[in-house]
Design brief:
Elements: H1 6-31, H2 39-63, H3 74-105, H4 112-141, E1 144-146, E2 149-151
Antiparallel strand pairs: 1-2
Helix pairs in contact: 1-3, 2-4, 3-4
Length: 153
């Protein structure tokens, strides 16, 4: 496995942003209403990203194999690395989608639904970015070291 490149996450976010923008435009064109973005979506993403970050902070000594800590077994470390990869890609897709919906809803800021979709969309996108940051931090801690050489896991 290779470490995640930021450029790959940006491409994922941009593609999904275009999909979210197009979907919101289609909904607005068909029903003259903004695509609703619930406030709970933003809240859940902030909780998920924050929880991921807290868990990473708590697991950091074990992942770095610091003295006095019991390191994770190799299979658990590999599973944690896969979780970090999935989190970064999912966070990028979520951030892109909600950013696209928020951008499409900016034309309707004069209506309560448009204002709500814009604000909640941007807050949800920021929650997705928090998930990406937490996942990239976790992934950086999962790099295996073998006799002085670094291999990506």
């Amino acid at each position: 496995m290779h470490t995640t490149k930021i450029s790959r996450l940006v491409v994922i976010a941009l593609i999904v942003m275009a999909i979210g923008f197009a979907l919101a435009q289609i909904v607005m064109g068909q029903s003259s209403r903004s695509l609703p973005v619930p406030a709970m979506a933003a809240g859940a993403l902030w909780i998920l990203g924050g929880g991921f970050g807290i868990w990473t902070y708590m697991a950091k000594p074990r992942l770095k194999r610091e003295p006095g800590t019991k390191p994770f077994p190799p299979l658990a470390s590999a599973r944690i690395a896969v979780l970090a990869l999935a989190g970064s890609r999912t966070g990028a897709a979520i951030a892109g989608f909600y950013a696209g919906v928020a951008l499409a809803s900016m034309g309707n800021l004069d209506t309560p639904a448009g204002w709500s979709a814009t604000i909640n969309g941007f807050l949800a996108a920021l929650g997705g970015i928090l998930l990406v940051i937490s996942s990239l931090w976790l992934e950086s801690l999962c790099v295996a070291r073998d006799q002085g050489t670094t291999t990506d896991t």
